[in-house]
Structures are given as structure tokens and as C-alpha cells.
Design goal:
OB fold (Dihydrolipoamide Acetyltransferase, E2P), alpha/beta, 270 residues, five-stranded mixed barrel, 2 domains, 6 helices
């Protein structure tokens, strides 16, 4: 609760100046406090600014160098931003019964379907793979059946881009197994042999489709900017807060001065 400052009358001939009020020990103390607060805000602003500038950005074209999957991301981990779209390669085995269809997939602007599969890359470790694209559901189903017949249980080496999970979505009420998002979490709910299974959070978009499917359009990602403008904005905010600390000190001191001037002038008007 803020108490109303008491107005002290004085017998001096002239009211105090604003400068005289500011130089009183009380207001010098408040100024010191404002300096401390502003210093903290300035430190936070500098910290945000340093985080906003990436002094060691990844080299241009780094995503086009094919790397082992395990060098880029581990099972259960989120995909670091510099590695989104990274070309990777991994060897494993297709799991039978898990070639599933994901709708609302676009290739060169044309809507269609992806055929996906569970690719076992370790003893109890799997990654979701987008195998290829089809323009209609019938072609996608036929390709999935062919893969189930010819590829399930066989070892293969897959090269593609590793891409972040799109997140799950609610299926339509009339088809609880339909999927229109490429989400390993959703695929996991329909996969077989998942007990004690470690799953990669991102998925792999294969660069080469098998017979009956079209290669997935997967261009290289845009180069990341070395400046994080959101952090720049936060740094400016902290600078504004630092200036506001001094403004509060000035405003409080001026309010006190105006009260004393008003108290000085009131008796003179009687």
C-alpha cells in the first residue's frame, strides 16, 4: 500500500528547485536503486543480443552432405534446427504389416498420397520413412501391397532427408485410422511389434521411390539466417526497461517537488 507523502511547510523565501530535490539523500538513494535495476536490464539485453547473432553459422550446403542418421539425431530426441532437411543414410529392415498411407501430400503442387513404412534400424529402434508419392489412393494402396509382398522383412539402405514430426491430428469420425499428417507418433499407434520400441521423433523422406511410386519432391532447405530477430526484439525491450527505471526515478522526484511547490504557494494565496 502506497502512503501519501506528507507535505512539509517551510519558512524559506523561495520553493526548492527540482535539482535541489533530486540532490537530497533520499532521492540519490532512489537513483542508486534505479542504476542497479537498469544495470540488470542492460545485462539481460546484452545477453539476448549475443544470442541473436550466430557467430558460427553452419556452412552453406551442409544439408546436402549425406551423413549417417545417428550422427544427426538420436531416437527420442527433437531434431535440432540446423539439421532440418539434412541428407542422411541408414540401413535397416522393413517391418511387415506397417506400410501405411498418409493423405494430403503435395508433390510439385499436386495433392496425393505418401506410402510410409516402419524401418527397423536397430534391435529395438525404428524410424518412420516416407517411401514415395502417388497421385491417387488406388495407386498408393497398390504400391503398399507390393512393398508388403516384396520388401517386408528384407534389409535395405535408405537415403533421404530427415524432417521434423508434423504433429498428430484428429482423424475423421468415419475412419479412425486415416492420417493426413506425417507424424511418427500417429504411425506408432498403428505399427506392429512396438513393445519396448525406441522411435525417432523426426521422419525420413526417401529421395528414391520404388516402382509404382513417384519420388517425393524434397528440395534443399533454405539457408538459415545468422540473425534471430526475435532475440533482437527482446534485447530492445530490455533497453527500454532500463530507460524506464530512470524515468520512474525522475517522475517520483518531480512529483515530490511539485507537492512542495504547491505547499509553498498555497499559504501565499490566502
Amino acid at each position: 500500500m502506497i502512503s501519501t507523502p506528507q507535505i512539509v511547510t517551510t519558512s524559506q523565501e523561495f520553493p526548492p528547485t527540482l535539482r535541489e530535490v533530486m540532490l537530497r539523500p533520499r532521492w540519490i538513494g532512489v537513483l542508486v536503486l534505479a542504476l542497479v535495476v537498469a544495470g540488470v536490464f542492460a545485462f539481460l539485453g546484452q545477453w539476448q543480443f549475443e544470442r541473436a547473432i550466430d557467430t558460427e553459422p553452419p556452412p552453406a550446403g551442409i544439408t546436402e552432405e549425406v551423413r549417417p542418421l545417428t550422427d544427426v539425431v538420436e531416437p527420442g530426441q527433437y531434431l535440432p534446427e540446423p539439421h532440418v532437411g539434412q541428407r542422411v543414410e541408414t540401413t535397416g529392415t522393413w517391418v511387415a504389416g506397417d506400410f501405411l498411407i498418409v493423405s494430403s501430400r503435395f508433390n510439385d503442387g499436386e495433392e496425393g498420397y505418401w506410402v510410409t513404412g516402419q524401418f527397423r534400424v536397430g534391435e529395438r529402434t525404428s524410424i518412420a520413412v516416407a517411401v514415395g508419392w502417388a497421385a491417387d489412393r488406388e495407386s498408393a494402396d497398390a504400391a503398399a501391397s507390393a512393398l508388403e509382398k516384396n520388401a517386408a522383412g528384407t534389409e535395405a539402405t535408405i537415403s533421404g532427408r530427415v524432417i521434423s514430426d508434423e504433429g498428430p491430428s484428429l482423424p475423421p469420425a468415419d475412419d479412425p485410422f486415416a492420417m493426413n499428417r506425417m507424424s511418427p507418433a500417429m504411425l506408432l499407434g498403428q505399427w506392429h511389434d512396438t513393445e519396448q520400441l525406441s522411435v525417432y521423433r523426426p521422419y525420413l523422406a526417401s529421395v528414391e521411390a520404388p516402382e509404382g511410386l513417384v519420388d517425393i519432391d524434397s528440395p534443399a532447405p533454405d539457408e538459415l539466417s545468422t540473425v534471430n530477430w526475435l532475440n533482437i526484439f527482446y534485447a530492445i525491450e530490455w533497453a527500454v526497461f532500463a530507460g524506464f527505471a530512470f524515468y520512474i526515478w525522475y517522475r517520483l522526484a518531480k512529483d515530490r517537488w511539485e507537492l512542495e511547490v504547491e505547499a509553498f504557494e498555497d499559504p501565499a494565496s490566502d
